[in-house]
Amino acid sequence: MRSIKRIVLAAVVATMAFSMAGCKLIQKTPEAIQNTVLAKVGSEKITLGDVDAELKADIDYLKETYGDDFESKIDDELKAKLKEVRQQVLNALVEEKILYLEAEKKGLVPTQEELDKEVAERTAEIQEAWGGEEAFAQAKEYYGYTDETFKAFLEDQVVIQKVKDEMFKDINITDDQINKYYEEHKDEFVNYGQADSRHLLFKTEEEAKAASDKIKSGETTFDALFKEYEGNKAKSTATDATEEDKALPISEDLGTVSHNQQNFDPLFLEGLKPLKEGEVSEPVKSSFGYHIIEATNVTETTPKEFNDELKAQIKTTLENEEKKSIYETQLDSLEKEYKVKTYENRL
């Protein structure tokens, strides 16, 4: 019996040793990992290396911060974000590959002379946008491009644009479509009203209501409270502010605020919109607390004139909508034609 146990134990040890050796043998090198195929478009392959090349600046940052084996060190949230970005890049590369193959099939690839001309024009535009030759060179280096690879990238973009132009060549937006769109979206085509706005901000509804009642009764004025609270914002936001300081009412001059002002609390804007010249609001609740708002130099929201400029704006909107619809439909068809396969589980 003892000899049988020894034979079984030896077999188990041998099996474990073989398994461990096998794990080491199949462990991928960094180079092999970069060669992992993430998608196939016909006979063309897109690898993890292709994706990461598009994310060079981000990958370099992760390597500098966490080391070459950063993927084993970053937290789950950052891993999820990296996977999401890689997925977006992979999708873009698949689309580009499909469109390039379609350009070749339809004979839309320009001659090298034509490509050189268009690439030179685009390069000049991009260089100007980046602020000159030196800044442009730094940008290319940062994003991992050499002069040759950037030229190749632009050549691809020129070819891809030829395919899109072919897709969209029959789009024709008529005056009837423009007029119909205008009638259906009249409320969007307005010159938004605005007002010079000051406000008092309170932490609680009770404080705001008490101040509002005093203003309405004539016991005090908006101006008087505005001056009284003027220094409170600095106190409440100071690094050494106490809980009492943080609870202080504050006053602020917000300058000219449009009725559709970006980055403003929508509830605040709803409180501002109905105010007439020199009017002070009732307490208005927002995510910041309770406001009493004063409006001066008020202008009303008025309809935009249905002129050539607005018609051109609507035409562009309709063209973009039709382009989006055509592109999505044709891309879906081309994915089937070129037998696209993606392997997101390998990301």
UniProtKB/TrEMBL annotation:
Catalyses which reaction(s): [protein]-peptidylproline (omega=180) = [protein]-peptidylproline (omega=0)
Pfam families xrefs: Rotamase_2, SurA_N_3
UniProt-listed InterPro entries: PPIase_dom_sf (IPR046357), PPIase_PpiC (IPR000297), PrsA_foldase (IPR050245), Trigger_fact/SurA_dom_sf (IPR027304)
Alphabetized PROSITE patterns for the sequence: PPIC_PPIASE_2, PROKAR_LIPOPROTEIN
One annotated GO molecular function: peptidyl-prolyl cis-trans isomerase activity
Signal sequence range: 1-21
EC primary class: isomerase
Keyword field: Isomerase, Rotamase, Signal
PpiC domain residues: 192-297
Enzyme Commission number, as recorded: 5.2.1.8
Protein name: peptidylprolyl isomerase
